[in-house]
Amino acid sequence: MSVPKFFEYVDQHQTDFIDRLRKAVEIPSVSSEAARRPDVVRMAEFLVSELKNLGASVETRDVGIQKMHDGSSLNLPPVVLATYGNDPSKKTVLVYGHYDVQPAMLEDGWNTDPFKLIEDDEGRLLGRGSTDDKGPILGWLNVIEAHKNLGLDFPVNLKMCFEGMEESGSEGLDDLILLEAKKYFADVDAVCISDNYWLGTTKPCLTYGLRGVSYFHLTIKGPGRDLHSGVFGGTVHEPMTDLFKVMSTLVAPDGKILVPGIYDKVAPLTDEENKTYDNLAFEMNELHSAVGSQVNIHKTEREVLQHRWRYPSLSLHGVEGAFYNPGDKTVVPAKVIGKFSIRSVPDMETEDITALVKKHIESEFAKLGSKNTVHIECSHAGKPWVATPNHWNYVAAAKAVEKVFNVKPDMTREGGSIPVTLSFQDALGKNVLLLPMGRGDDGAHSINEKLDRSNYIQGIKLLGTYLHEIAEIKA
Ligand SMILES: C[C@H](N)C(=O)N[C@@H](Cc1c[nH]cn1)C(=O)O
Ligand SMILES: [Zn+2]
Ligand SMILES: [Zn+2]
Q1: What is the largest CA-CA distance in the chain?
Q2: Geometric angle at alpha carbon 451, from 445 and 456, rounded to 5°
Q3: Domains of the chain (ranges, CATH numbers)
């Protein structure tokens, strides 16, 4: 097999691959900010141009319009569909990734400009999107480049689906998947997604489960305009006071969700499932270093992982309309929107979650006796996903991990959400594998997001070797 030449090429072209990542990180493709939408589109154009230069057949799909909360609308960024190779004697692998990123500002506490890729002394490639998910999607392009420039036969037909709205609920993508299930995606044999992380910092893993996510906007309004707290304080119902009171009834400081009925459908932990938590390469100190302090709720690694993977959680994210600048503004905000989300697990249903949250919020608000108004809506929801990891897709990936890292991978689940995973599994009826590139301390969604140079370079080898291992499988 041609793998040694491929490995050599990857090692020798590290600088080119990092330059490709540098160009991508410099495009601030933040899907949640309307003002950044042209940058998200620019990022799609960048991928299209790179893919075309590599010889892939590329098309972009318009997936419609996004209705914004202020009533305006915005074009959704295109989904980039690309194909490399079309040999009926080979397997066809679909890879998915996202080219949008979470917001990032220097003022959030970044040590460097989040939209400039900086390599520090320890070989960390810092920049928004480095690990989530620009490094991994460029990994696939780098695999193509290596094979093309070496004149190596590509082991599979590769189909690529890259979207620009994953961090904002993947709007428009499910419809496209359903539409193309029997057309563009018809000949797909297996799906691979590289968009999550190793458990810790040293051992690679294959991932077979994700939590779902239901994101909520809780709006409380009353006064016709923002008010002077000296003139009106104590004389009007203040939306922020109501909001804090209601939001404080959602979750306890020990992480327990307080919405009645929310745990009713959570699948009980069986002995068999409990055993899957034995011997995983994860230690409390890795959690402490990823968190940046020792504020863990649970004492044991097992409890930490179970609360990350197989129990639901509720997080409070922020308040739109609240005063948050430095200084002492004495305003009474007229309208505030509290944002929170619930990470869901088998066998919770998204419709039940929304109904329970609505009922709870309305009942808690009624207790306040406030003349303000309340409105609660679920802005996006995705279901949890768990696969059985004994399919040849996982076997090929496990062999690839052993070839690149000389170790058997851990089999993990993930606390984050990639709702499209389940959409691909259901619409195509094919096995889906999550094959992470980055480490558990990469700081995705946080400040100083990074991808270690070695994870990027070894990750490229891993993705390429996985495709070669697929070609070897007789199934
Ligand atoms: C795991 C993946 N890389 C990721 O970060 N997913 C996001 C998806 C999401 C859902 N709503 C907003 N973003 C996540 O888990 O938060
Ligand atoms: Zn993300
Ligand atoms: Zn991601």
Answers
A1: 79
A2: 140
A3: 3-210+385-472 (3.40.630.10), 212-266+311-382 (3.30.70.360)
Atom of ligand 1 nearest to the CA of 98: 3
**Is the pLDDT assigned to residue 2 strictly greater than 60?**
no
| pLDDT score of 243 | 98
**What count of other Cβ atoms lies within 10 Å of the Cβ of residue 408?**
13
List, chain by chain if needed, residues with CB within 6 Å of any ligand 1 atom.
132-133, 166-167, 169, 195-196, 213, 215, 416-418, 444
Give the CB-side neighbour count of residue 369, counting CA atoms within 13 A: 0
Contacts of 186 (CB under 8 A, 6+ apart): none
User: How much distance in Å is there from the Cα of 42 to the middle of ligand 1?
Assistant: 21
By the CB criterion, residues less than 5 angstroms from ion ligand 2 are 132
Residue 271 makes CB contacts below 8 A (sequence gap 6+) with none
pLDDT, one tens digit per residue, over 226-257 is 999 999 999 999 999 999 999 999 999 999 99
The label of the residue with tokens 């959690």 reads: 287
User: How does strand 79-84 pair with strand 385-386?
Assistant: unpaired
- Residues marked active site are found at 100, 166
pLDDT, tens digit, 9 for 90 and up, residues 345-362: 999 999 999 999 999 999
Report if pTM > 0.90: yes
The interface pTM score, or ipTM, of the predicted complex is 0.97
Distance 418 CA to ligand 2 centre (A): 8
Q: Which ligand is the nearest neighbour of the Cα of 96?
A: 3
Ligand lying closest to the C-alpha of residue 168: 1
Are residues 195 and 324 in contact, defined by beta-carbon separation less than 8 angstroms?
Answer: no
> Residue 39: which of 98, 99, 79 has the closest Cα?
99
pLDDT for the residue numbered 68:
86
> Counting atoms of ligand 1 from 1, which one is nearest the CA of 415?
15
Distance 136 CA to ligand 3 centre (A): 9
At 286, give phi and psi (nearest 5°). Answer: -70, -35
